[in-house]
Every structure is written in C-alpha cells, then in structure tokens.
Design goal:
The protein is mainly alpha-helical. The chain is built from six helices and two strands. A two-stranded antiparallel ribbon has the order 1-2. Helix 1 packs across helix 5, helix 2 packs across helix 3 and helix 2 crosses helix 5.
C-alpha cells in the first residue's frame, strides 16, 4: 500500500496556511498599540457592521469558540467598548452594541487592518485581489459543502 504525501513546495493548503500565519502576525502587530488582539478586533468589526449580534453569532463570525467569545466580550465590556443588556429581550441571546468609545477604537483598528491588507495585496496585479477573494471563497464553499453533505 502506497501512502500519498503532500509536497509542501507545491501544496496550496500549505501556502494558504503560510499566508494566514503571516496575516495573523501582521494583524497582531498592527493592533497591539491599540490594546487589541485579532479576536477582539473581529468582534468589534462584526458589531460595527452588524449591531446586536449574540455571542454565538459573534463566535461564528470571528472563528472562535463560544467560550473564547465570552472571554473576549467580557474584556471588551470591562474596557467600556461595548454594552450588553443584563437580561435578554427575547430568548437567551444578549444582543451586543458598540459604545461610542468602542466605535472610535474600531475606526482606528479598521484603518490599521486595512493597511495590513493593502500591504499583503500589494504584490498582486490590480484585478488579483478580487480574483483571490473569489477563489478562496470558492475553496471554502467546496469544503463546507463536503462537511455539510
């Protein structure tokens, strides 16, 4: 029986992991002066674009566990960056909103992350960024379809 091996020099998955690690490192460095990490930034960005999301929705959107998101939310709330009601208006989900302070910090963080993304995509041709986004979305969809099916 022969075992197929992945050639790291030609592996798309390995190149994608390298890019993801480099992106995460650059994002961490850009957010550090603002006192944020990537999951905290993701939470703020999601709330900035979709106010009222629950902790479970935020966890899915930020690619972290529910337990991790509760820690993120508590830390951001303690810093006065977001507000959550003490009781759920409907069901069990506590909708979360950015405070004015949270919105101001998000604005700074968004600019810092946009600069990281600009640096990352600088090496691509003008149409390359959109093509890359479409291709990566197609790859994710292909894998999610297999997992869901």
């Amino acid at each position: 029986m022969t075992q197929e091996r992945v050639d790291l020099d030609s592996s798309v998955g390995y190149a994608l992991k390298q890019a993801a690690a480099a992106l995460r490192s650059a994002m961490d460095a850009a957010l550090r002066p603002l006192g944020l990490n990537v999951p905290q930034y993701a939470c703020l960005e999601l709330l900035g674009q979709r106010p009222g999301l629950s902790a479970a929705e935020l966890a899915r959107g930020a690619f972290v566990t529910r337990q991790s998101m509760h820690t993120v939310l508590q830390g951001l709330q303690d810093r006065g960056l977001l507000a959550r009601p003490s009781t759920a208006p409907h069901g069990r989900a506590l909708p979360t909103q950015l405070t004015d302070q949270g919105a101001r910090l998000l604005s700074q963080a968004s600019r810092a992350i946009a600069e990281v993304e600009r640096r990352m995509l600088h090496a691509l041709p003008a149409s390359g960024a959109e093509r890359l986004r479409q291709d990566l979305t197609a790859c994710a969809n292909a894998l999610n379809t297999v997992e869901d099916g």
